[in-house]
Specification:
Length: 197
């Protein structure tokens, strides 16, 4: 599903370090030099939404197909959770911050773990080089990581008829216990994600 990588179940410690997980995770707010505040705000927004128990809305929000589609789709969900509008400039900024957070975990902090466990198909150095390119779309590895970073489940859906959607997979399912809500992305079956809200 996008990104050229295959996924494997991997878990990380949460922000408070409460979960015991096989691969340690350094959250964005713990990263040196990661002080832009964008990811921190996105995490807070997801957590506030979970705490509010807001209802489900299923509507497709089309996302620009520029390689950031997965990250833009997640950003659109988070903007909805926070009750804020998301003009193009902020959507791109949020998407790039989400990509950077995933890159930091996959390619810097836990690179060797990802390589050893075969979570990334092929050469991880090549994958990480491509991941820095904004037109390289994210997929399973990025969703595994971002569900943990945001402490919010990410559901991947496929549209099977006009108003019917089938959930293909949920990343970060352990966070579903905290809320009935989830980040929803709509996969087109080949190489694009839209937001499903």
């Amino acid at each position: 599903m996008g990104g050229g990588g295959s996924g494997a179940v991997c878990m990380y410690k949460d922000r408070a370090g409460m979960a015991s997980m096989p691969i340690g995770f350094v959250a964005p707010w713990e990263m040196k030099g990661f002080g832009s505040g964008v990811v921190e705000e996105l995490v807070g927004r997801a957590q506030r939404h979970a705490a509010n128990g807001m209802g489900q809305v299923f509507r497709i929000l089309k996302v620009k197909g520029d390689g950031r589609c997965l990250f833009r789709s997640i950003a659109k969900n988070l903007a909805l959770f926070g009750g804020r509008s998301l003009p193009e400039r902020l959507e791109k900024q949020d998407a790039d911050a989400l990509r950077e957070a995933a890159f930091k975990v996959i390619c810097v902090d836990k690179r060797e773990d990802f390589r050893k466990k075969g979570i990334i198909e092929g050469d991880i150095a090549n994958y990480c080089t491509r991941m820095r390119n904004p037109d390289f779309y994210g997929g399973e590895p990025e969703m595994f990581v971002l569900a943990e970073v945001l402490q919010t489940p990410i559901g991947v859906y496929l549209q099977i008829s006009h108003n019917k959607f089938q959930k293909l997979v949920m990343y970060g399912a352990q966070f579903a216990k905290k809320t009935k809500d989830e980040i929803r992305v709509l996969y087109n079956g080949t190489n694009h994600y839209d937001a499903l809200i």
